[in-house]
């Protein structure tokens, strides 16, 4: 089968790549685009480790075909940091030890950022609901939820 040419924007940069029609966005990110921050945890959309945003909508990249990115704005974990400076969520996750093995971390951060863009003052219940699609076997979620809540408070105070 012939490869498909895709033109899109990833982390604010125009991108072009070739992919098989059956390649997932996760395949394209981790393969030809060499953006390996999104992790494959389940390949069925159940764990959230591969979370990205597509036009500011949270998506599991393992469930999206790469060809579907044509003309859209994709944001990955690599687009979260601002140059050499960590995003406030990344900093707070580090400060509060809201990560352990790292498999879920990129998805948790992307999902948390998407939440705070949509609702800069979420309740704990809203944070837990929003992150329900992201599975973590190591942390027990409490530190993650607290890190998101504290980041939200600090960002509002700025």
TrEMBL record:
<dbReference type="InterPro" id="IPR002888">
    <property type="entry name" value="2Fe-2S-bd"/>
</dbReference>
<feature type="domain" description="2Fe-2S ferredoxin-type">
    <location>
        <begin position="4"/>
        <end position="80"/>
    </location>
</feature>
<keyword id="KW-0408">Iron</keyword>
<dbReference type="InterPro" id="IPR036010">
    <property type="entry name" value="2Fe-2S_ferredoxin-like_sf"/>
</dbReference>
<dbReference type="InterPro" id="IPR051452">
    <property type="entry name" value="Diverse_Oxidoreductases"/>
</dbReference>
<dbReference type="Pfam" id="PF00111">
    <property type="entry name" value="Fer2"/>
</dbReference>
<keyword id="KW-0001">2Fe-2S</keyword>
<dbReference type="InterPro" id="IPR006058">
    <property type="entry name" value="2Fe2S_fd_BS"/>
</dbReference>
<dbReference type="InterPro" id="IPR036884">
    <property type="entry name" value="2Fe-2S-bd_dom_sf"/>
</dbReference>
<dbReference type="GO" id="GO:0016491">
    <property type="term" value="F:oxidoreductase activity"/>
</dbReference>
<keyword id="KW-0411">Iron-sulfur</keyword>
<dbReference type="InterPro" id="IPR012675">
    <property type="entry name" value="Beta-grasp_dom_sf"/>
</dbReference>
<dbReference type="Pfam" id="PF01799">
    <property type="entry name" value="Fer2_2"/>
</dbReference>
<dbReference type="GO" id="GO:0046872">
    <property type="term" value="F:metal ion binding"/>
</dbReference>
<protein>
    <submittedName>
        <fullName>Ferredoxin</fullName>
    </submittedName>
</protein>
<dbReference type="InterPro" id="IPR001041">
    <property type="entry name" value="2Fe-2S_ferredoxin-type"/>
</dbReference>
<dbReference type="GO" id="GO:0051537">
    <property type="term" value="F:2 iron, 2 sulfur cluster binding"/>
</dbReference>
<keyword id="KW-0479">Metal-binding</keyword>
<keyword id="KW-0560">Oxidoreductase</keyword>
């Amino acid at each position: 089968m012939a490869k498909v040419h895709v033109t899109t924007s990833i982390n604010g940069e125009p991108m072009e790549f070739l992919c098989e029609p059956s390649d997932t966005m996760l395949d394209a990110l981790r393969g030809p685009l060499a953006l390996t921050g999104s992790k494959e945890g389940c390949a069925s959309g159940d764990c959230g480790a591969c979370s990205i945003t597509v036009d500011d909508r949270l998506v599991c990249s393992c469930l999206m075909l790469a060809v579907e990115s044509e003309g859209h704005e994709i944001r990955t974990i690599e687009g979260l940091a601002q140059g050499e400076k960590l995003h406030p969520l990344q900093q707070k996750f580090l400060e509060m030890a809201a990560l352990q093995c790292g498999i879920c971390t990129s998805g948790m951060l992307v999902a948390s950022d998407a939440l705070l863009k949509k609702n800069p003052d979420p309740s704990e219940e809203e944070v837990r609901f929003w992150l329900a699609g992201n599975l973590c076997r190591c942390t027990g979620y409490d530190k993650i939820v607290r890190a998101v809540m504290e980041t939200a408070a600090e960002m509002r105070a700025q």
